[in-house]
Amino acid sequence: MNQLKSFPANFLWGGATAANQIEGGFDLGGKGLSSADMVAYVPKSERGANNISIEVDSQRIQDILSGVFQGRFPKREGIDFYHSYPQDIHLMAEMGFKMLRISIHWSRIFPNGDEKQPNEAGLAFYDKIFDELLKYGIQPMVTLCHYEIPLGLVQKYNGFLHRAVVTHFVNYAEVLFKRYKDKVKYWLTFNEINMVTMHSPYTGAGVILDRVPKAQRENAKYQALHHQFLASALATKSLHKIIPDARMGCMLARMLHYGLTADPEDQREAQWRNQQNLFYTDIQVRGEYPNYIRRYWSANNLSLQKQRDDDIILKQNPVDFIAFSYYMSVCVTAHKDQSKPMDGNFIEGVRNPYLPISDWGWQIDPIGLRIALNDLYDRYQKPLFIVENGLGAYDKIEKGKIHDDYRINYLRSHICQMQEAVSDGVELLGYLAWGPIDLVSMSTSEMSKRYGFIFVDIDDEGKGSRQRIRKDSFFWYKKVIASNGTDLT
To answer: What residues form the catalytic site here (predicted)?
Structure first.
C-alpha cells in the first residue's frame, strides 16, 4: 500500500502576487515610473506566435515619455489593490491563508532608484499592507524585485548591465529590512531570475538590448545576470545581519524538460536544457558558476567582467531556501523537423503527446511537479517553497457565479503530486497559488487570462465594475487549507 505522509503542521498555504500586476496607483504616493509601466497592452491579434507582449525598446520608451505613443498600460492600473487591499486581504483571510506573497514596487520607495533618501509615503503604504495581513495572522513573503525596476535606472544605467545598480539595489533592500524587520521574515530577491537570459532581459533586469552592439548582446545578458547574483548575495548578507531570524530565498521559473523520444540525442538535449535552467540555483545555493556553463561561455566567446571579491561574495552568501514557480513542463528534441513547435510558451519546445494543454498553450503536467521537487531536493538538500502555481483560463459568469472546475482539477492534481514528493522525503515549506485574485497577466497584459480564486470584473480593455466575486475554487481552496491538504474533494 502506498503510504502518504501528511503535510507538515506548519505548512504555509496561501497565494502569490506582484505589485505591477495588482497595485495600480502608478502615479500616487510619490511613486516613480518603473520598467513595467512602459509595457503597453497589445491585442491578441497583433501578437506573435508565442502570444507574448512584453518587449520594450529605446524608441518605444522615448515615444511613451514624449507622448507620441498613446496606448493602454494595464500594469499601471492593476486591479487597484492600492485602494482595495483591505477588502482583498479580507477575502484571502476568509480562505484561511497562512501566507501572502507580494512584491514591493522599488520605484514606490526610490522613485528614480538612486535617491539618497527613501519615499516615506511608499514605505508607509507597505506598512499598512503588512499590518492588514498580520491582523489576520497571514505572514507576508516579500519579493524585492518582481519584473520591475525604476525607469530612472533603466535610462541612466541600462538596468543591471551596469554594476552601479547593484549598490542601489542593496541600499533599497537594506531600507526595507530595517523598516519591516518586525513584520516580514520571508524574503526573495529577484522573481524568476532566469527570465534575464531565458526570454526578456528588459523584464528581468531592465536591460534594453538595442543599446548594446549586436555582437555583445548575449554577453550583456550574462553580465547583467552576474550583477543580479551579486546583488542577491549582498542583500542576503545584509538580511542575516539586520534580521537574524529571517530567511532569504532565490526564485526560479522551473522549466522541467523531457526528451521527446528515447533517442540519446533527445535525452542529451533535455539534459542540457535542464542544466541551463538550474545553473541559476547552482550559483545562488552553491555559490559558484558550474563547469557546464563555463564550457558554454568558452565555446561561444562569452566572458564576465568581475571584480576581485565577486566569487567570494557569491560563495559566502547562499540563500536559505529555494523558491520556484511551476506551471508546465517542456518537451524537446534534437531533431527540429520531427514535431510541431508549441505556441504560447516562453521557451522553445515541441508538443508532448501525453499532456493536455491550457487555453494559452501551456502543457499541464502535475507529475512533472513531483519530479521537479525531487530533482531540486536531491541536488541541493535545501528547503523548497512553491511560490507560484496555477492555471490561467477563461472564466464565465453564470447567474452571478463562476464554476471553475477546470482550475480546481488543475490545482488538486498538483497538490496530490506535492504530497507524493513530501512522502518521498522532500522538505517543502509551503504552497502559494499564483494569482489568488485575478490580476493583469505578466506575459500578455490581459485580464482575460484569469488565475484567481476571486474574480475581478475588469476586461482586457480596462472596463468593468471592479467587483470581486468568489469563484467555486475559492470555497474549494478554503477547504484544502482548513484540512491542511487532506480534503481535496
So the answer is: 388 (nucleophile)
